[in-house]
Amino acid sequence: MASSSHNTFDGSNDDNFDQYSDQQFDQYFDQIVDQTFDNLSIHNGIQEEKRKKRKKRVYIERNREEGDVRLWNDYFSETPTYPHNLFRRRFRMNKSLFTRIVDRLSNEVQFFREKRDALGRQSLSPLQKCTAAIRALAYGNAADAVDEYLQLPPAR
Predict the structure, then answer these.
(1) Is residue 135 situated within a structural domain?
(2) Between 12 and 95, whose confidence is greater?
(3) PANTHER family, alphabetically (predicted)?
(4) Is 55 among the domain residues?
(5) Are 109 and 121 in contact (CB under 8 A)?
(6) pTM above 0.85, yes or no
(7) Quick check: is 34 in a domain?
(8) What value does the mean pLDDT of the chain take?
(9) What is the pLDDT of residue 102?
């Protein structure tokens, strides 16, 4: 039988165990942090290489301003190229309704307002944006079906 005199408990073993476990945890935590940092560094290096290899986009001059002038002259000027009946056939509404829609959209919806792009050039006019949207809705065509005439960039 074991006597209670052999079981000396003074609490020093608990302190040693706590120090040992803290030291092991710190080593393990440091190892995980270092490994994660190395993995991130490698991943970021790969991402930088991909960015360097990426080709720059080709800029294509689309003469947006000319497209806006052509649209205005064809349908909305004092002496339009196309008469009212052709406007009604192409847009499936009369001109006064169309201009009210353009005015309301350009005043109430941010997308339809004219802005400056990153190069400082004017974006498409509200007339061009509304024309593309309404003609696409009227004909059920894809959005880029009117791109060439209105000098719009292709849809992405």
Answers:
(1) yes
(2) 95
(3) OS07G0546750 PROTEIN (PTHR47150:SF5), OS12G0169200 PROTEIN (PTHR47150)
(4) no
(5) no
(6) no
(7) no
(8) 78
(9) 92
Residue 38 is assigned to a structural domain of this protein: no
Residue 141 backbone zone (phi > 0: left; psi -120 to 50: alpha; other: beta): beta
The pLDDT tens digits for 50-79 are: 666 767 777 777 788 888 899 999 999 999
Can you give the pLDDT at residue 119?
76
Q: Structural domain of residue 108, as residue ranges?
A: 64-150
CB atoms within 10 A of CB 60: 7
Q: At what angle do helices 64-71 and 126-139 cross, to 10 degrees?
A: 70
Structure tokens at 95: 């001109």
Give the chain's domain count: 1
pLDDT of residue 147: 58
User: At residue 143, what are phi and psi to the nearest 5 degrees?
Assistant: -60, -30
